[in-house]
Every structure is written in structure tokens, then in C-alpha cells.
Amino acid sequence: MTIRERMELREKEYLSPYAQLSINSKGRLRPEKQCDIRPVFQRDRDRIIHCKSFRRLKDKTQVFLTPEGDHYRTRLTHTLEVSQNARTIAKALKLNEELVEAIALGHDLGHTPFGHAGERALNRVCPYGFEHSAQSVRTVDLLEKDGAGLNLTYEVRDGILNHQTVGQPHTLEGKVVRLSDKIAYIHHDMDDAVRAGVLTEADVPADIREILGSTPNERLSHFIHDIITTSMDQDDIQMSAPIDAAMKRLRKFMFERVYENPEAKSEEAKAEVLMETLYQHYLKHIDDLPAEFLKLLSEGEPREKVVCDYVGAMSDRFAIAKYEEIYIPKSWPV
């Protein structure tokens, strides 16, 4: 018996009857030989951590564009916080922690530079639209490894695709990540907003503080404990009605005071213009794309989607550098 087979047997003996067992995965897009050490979801987790799109998350905006302080979240730190929340919940509920971790680490791989401002810009100008959940799946299926993709399992791809509020993941592990993503961004975006002076803890409505707590850590702990308690021994992942209602009120408050705050979002219009301009440039100068994207064109991928693939994959810093290289006059060398 291989190490992998022993791990699969341990899953069967220990995990909840509602957990997704590695041995019961629906498989990959392309069949491949099993690893003798790692179950399938552990392999997926490892592939995501080592891919280029994961590394680029370190320089992609979460909420505050190019902040001067060192302690604001990036898309990468957001991803790690989602993963940690999800693993805590999964471990308590005896779900498949490696599946949860793989979904969490991969859920934002297709996100644009400049956060949702970049996503809005590409969705506006591309005739095929642009939505980061679908782009994350396209990234792992097609864009990584020079067109070969990561060949992830169905369950990980399903969890990535359905990680937003409107999604309906087919596994409890995917549902854990969907909720973990929401409570992570509410938690850390408020923390960053306080750090930025956009709001204070006293601004949070009293009825919300009374239910969820008066600090980011209290609220996060309250969310996680409630999800675990409400979902224990259930074939679903959910919050209790009072906590869910309070979270929705807190999310509405965050949209009013942070996500749609003119002061916090003052630079987003510039970011959208930059993204649209880069998209139009590469659409007109298609041969300026790197070789791996030209290869996609030769294989029949629509040029608009391939340009979105390239521009959408950029980090904030790289997008700004490309814009300056193309449109900002350079000084004449002495």
C-alpha cells in the first residue's frame, strides 16, 4: 500500500460522512497517473502554490490601491486569510482540509490588477465580458504552464468557479470557502479602513457591534464559531439566522462607507482608464503580446479574450510600467 493509499484510507475512517473524499474525486480534465505520496487535492494545492499566477497576487490590489503603508492587505494576503479561515472551519467539521485549502488558494488567481476596478474595466470593454471567478478557472485550465494548464480536479475547479455569493459549490468544502471569503474580506477590509482613517470602530452601528463584537478579531471569531456550531453534523454550511442578518447589515455598511467611498476609491477611475487603454492598445497591436498568448491565438482563441488574459493577469506594478512604457514620453539620454 502506498503512502497516498494510506492517507486515503485515513480520510475514509476519520472525515465526516458529508466530506469529499479524495478517492471519490470526479477526476481531472485529462487523466494522469496518481502520485504515490499525495492524494489528488493535496497535489492540486501544491500546483496552485507553485504557479505564476499565485505569485502575482502579492502585487495586486485588495481594496486600497498602491497604499504607502506596509500593512494593508494585498490579493495574496487576502487569499491566505481566506485559506486560514476555511481550514479552521473544515478541521472542526471534519471536512477535507486539503480540498478546502486548494480552493481557497486558487479562488482569486484570475483577478485583475487594481481590484474590482480592473475587473469592471475589462468587463466593460471586452465583448465576451470579464468575471474573475470564471477567469480563475480559465487561468488554471488554460493559461498556466504556457497553455497546458494545471489540470486540477473537478472539485477544486468547481469551488473556484462558485466562490462568490451567487455561486453554488457542489461540495461542502466549496461552501466553506465561499463563506470564508466573505468573512475574510469584511474582517480585513474594515481593519484596513480603520488604518486608513476612512472610518473608526465607533462608526459601526451599535446593533451590529452588540451581536458581532466591537473589534475585527471579535467579529471574525464570532463568524467562525457560528458557522461551525450551525453546520456541525449537517449536510450544509451556513450561519445562524441572527448572525447572517448581522453580517449582511455589516456588509451593507462597508459598501456605504468603504467600497463606494469617494475618498477611499478616488484613484479607481484612473485605474479603469489605464486598464481600458492597455486593452485597446494590445487589441490594435496584437503582435506585441508575449509568445504564449500569441500561441493561444494560433489555437483559435478569440483575440479579445486573449488580450483580456494578458492585461487581466498583470500585477498593479507591471500594468503601470507597461502603460508608462507605451504612453509616457521618455527623457532623451545624455
Written description of the protein model:
With 334 residues, the chain is mostly helical. 60% of the residues lie in helices and 0% in strands. It has helices spanning 3-14, 40-49, 52-56, 75-93, 97-106, 115-125, 132-143, 154-161, 172-196, 206-212, 216-231, 241-259, 268-284, 291-298, 303-313, 316-327. The model has no long low-confidence stretch (mean pLDDT 93).
DSSP strand tally: 0
* Share of helical residues: 55-70%
Q: What is the overall number of helices? A: 16
The first-level CATH class is given as Mainly Alpha
Count of domain modules: 1
Largest sheet at a glance? none
Q: Looking at the structure, what is the overall shape? A: flat
Keywords:
single chain, 334 residues, mainly alpha, Hypothetical protein af1432, 16 helices, 60% helix
Task: Give a brief outline of the structure.
By secondary structure, the chain is mostly helical.
List the helices and strands and how they pair.
Layout: H1 3-14, H2 40-49, H3 52-56, H4 75-93, H5 97-106, H6 115-125, H7 132-143, H8 154-161, H9 172-196, H10 206-212, H11 216-231, H12 241-259, H13 268-284, H14 291-298, H15 303-313, H16 316-327
Helix pairs in contact: 2-5, 4-5, 4-9, 4-11, 5-8, 5-9, 6-13, 7-8, 8-9, 9-11, 9-12, 10-12, 13-15, 13-16, 14-15
